[in-house]
Amino acid sequence: MKKILVPVDGSKHCFKALDYASSIAEKYGSKILLLNVQEGYIPLIVGVTYYRITETLSPQESLHPRPLEKTYESGRIEPDNKGIHTDEHEVKGAAIVEEAKRYIEENSPGVDIDVVVAFGIPAEAIIEIADRDDCDAIIMCTHGMGGIKRFTMGSVTNKVVHTATVPVMVIR
């Protein structure tokens, strides 16, 4: 297993998934790809827009927006597709993946980690990025929704489990 995708939403439930993913990554030398998907995205074209954080910038550099390249305190975001979303979504998504990254670095030093912030429908983004990045597995948390809430709202985890092309481990 070379690469594990771990979608994170900033909830405490996700730390359990991070523990499992870190344990597997340490054992098999796998890379962890942390993903946060921000909704509230208005697509200009069909598909998922996602950004990979590629280099660290100073807080001063993060205050100067660039037309096709947004920056913030923790890294640079490079667009793969075009879309409209707010800087607030970028900052929120970046904060979530960076918190997850710090957690892994503190508890499992030496694990190789990459982070991505995506914009779109969460289940679709998770599946698309797992395929695009050649992930061997997805490890994700579930929030334990009851039957009625899951039926009326749908479940990201449920959609991923039933449509992903790679194995999915669900942590409760």
**Number of distinct helices:** 5
Rg, alpha carbons: 16 Å
What is the top-level CATH class? Alpha Beta
Q: Report the uncertain regions.
A: 43-47, 54-82
Could you give the distance between the termini? 22 Å
Question: Helices and strands, in N-to-C order?
Answer: EHEEEEEEHEHEHHE
Within the largest sheet, what's the order of strands? 5-6-4-8-2-1-9-10
Shape: globular
Protein name: UspA domain-containing protein
Family: Belongs to the universal stress protein A family.
InterPro entries: Rossmann-like_a/b/a_fold (IPR014729), Universal_stress_UspA (IPR006015), UspA (IPR006016)
Domain UspA: 1-172
Question: Main traits of this protein?
Answer:
172 residues; alpha/beta; Rossmann fold; eight-stranded mixed sheet; two-stranded antiparallel sheet; 10 strands; 27% strand
Notes on the structure:
The protein is of the alpha/beta class. The chain has a single domain, classed as HUPs (Rossmann fold), CATH 3.40.50. Helices cover 36% and strands 27% of the residues. The protein has five helices and ten strands. The protein has helices at residues 14-28, 87-107, 122-132, 147-153, 156-163; strands spanning 3-7, 31-38, 42-43, 49-53, 70-72, 75-79, 83-84, 112-119, 137-141, 168-171. Strands 5-6-4-8-2-1-9-10 form an eight-stranded mixed sheet, sandwiched between helices. A two-stranded antiparallel ribbon has the order 3-7. The longest helix is centred in the middle third of the chain and has 21 residues, at 87-107. The protein is globular. The two termini are 22 Å apart. Mean pLDDT is 77; it is low at 43-47 and 54-82.
